[in-house]
Amino acid sequence: MTEQQTKEINARNERYNKYVESVTPKTGTFVSLLKAFVIGGITCVIAELIGDGLSTLLPSLSDELVSSYTSMIIVSVAIFFTGFGFYDVIARHGGAGSFLPITGFANAMSSAALEYKSEGLILGTSVKMFTVVGPVVVNGIVWSTFAGIVRYLVMLIFGV
Amino acid sequence: MSVFPDTWWGVVLSYLAVFAGGGLLCASAQMFIIKTKLTPARILVIFLLFGVFLQTIGVFDFLKSIFGSGITVPIVGFGAGLAEGAIKGAQTYGILGAFAGGLIQTAFGVGAAVVASYIVTLLFNSKSK
Fold first, then answer.
1. Which residue is closest to A159 within chain B, CA to CA?
2. Is the residue at A43 inside a domain?
3. Structural domain tally of chain A?
4. Which domain holds residue A101?
């Protein structure tokens, strides 16, 4: 390749990058942060309301069961929202506000399951259900096991 | 379990803390999306490991008493729950308990998610474009 050609390619790349920059929306930053904040915050407030409601209705329930039942409820609701196509509407605006809460985890799982339904329930849905959330589940199990072992050793050595 | 008093303004404050905590975590994840080239999957793993870390060093319960669902509902809470279970498991059953505890602790949510996803798949068809 001659020097002339290299120069031309570089100039073209630069023009292209400028073009990409000019068509990428810029207004986004602040608005998207605000939307993520509000949608994430509202999701957590709804979960808190459900938890408070559960412990008011069923006072004998332990705090641990209240939070387990609460996550079952919000996860199931998010998955049915995914089925009806509502969750996409939230996700379009929420960004991280819609994928960081556990409802986003549920949405990622169910939308993968739904998307591959056409390939069959076993080879499609069952295989692909964890394609998106797999990294979270695997890393969660590995590193929490490690955490358990570390704290166990700390308990043996230091007694805490 | 909450640091806020049992009065009406204590309840209001606790809900504000839930909103602020959840909002801040999500906004900081959004910041990762804007400022870095990390994909959502990587960001999820980072926040998950942050939760595991907070639980391991023992500060998660304190944060939970302030932010409530604001920190337990984001994926940070899932990581903390896994770690809490693994730590409890190891302390109850010995070192091998660490392998089971995390799954036991989070099984309600994960089980519900798998079953509900399966049911929804049977009931609906993909709306994707």
1. B91
2. yes
3. 2
4. 27-129
Residue A112 and residue A136: Cα distance in Å, rounded? 15
My answer on whether A44 and A81 are in the same domain is yes
Give the Cα separation of A66 and B58 in Å (integer).
22
Indicate whether A84 belongs to any domain: yes
Query: Chain B partners of A155 at a C-beta cutoff of 8 Å?
Result: 90-91
Is the domain of A116 the same as that of A140?
no
Q: Average pLDDT, whole number, for chain A?
A: 91
Q: Under DSSP, is residue A110 helix (H, G, I), strand (E, B) or coil?
A: helix
Helix (H) or strand (E) holding A136: helix A134-158
Residue A12 lies in a domain: no
The Cα–Cα gap between B105 and A67 comes to 11
Residue A29 distance to chain B (closest CA, Å): 7
Are the C-beta atoms of A131 and A111 separated by less than 8 Å? no
Residue A47 placed within a domain:
yes
CA atoms within 13 A on the CB side of A51: 23
Q: Rounded to whole angstroms, how far apart are CA atoms A63 and A60?
A: 9
CA–CA min distance A5, chain B (Å): 31
ipTM of the complex: 0.92
Residues B84/B105, Cβ–Cβ less than 8 Å: yes
- What separation in angstroms does the CA of A43 have from each of A49, A72, B57, B63, B74? 10, 14, 27, 18, 9
pTM: 0.87
pLDDT in tens, B64-73: 999 999 999 9
Residue B1 in tokens = 């379990």
**CA distance linking residue A97 with residue A94, whole number of Å:** 5
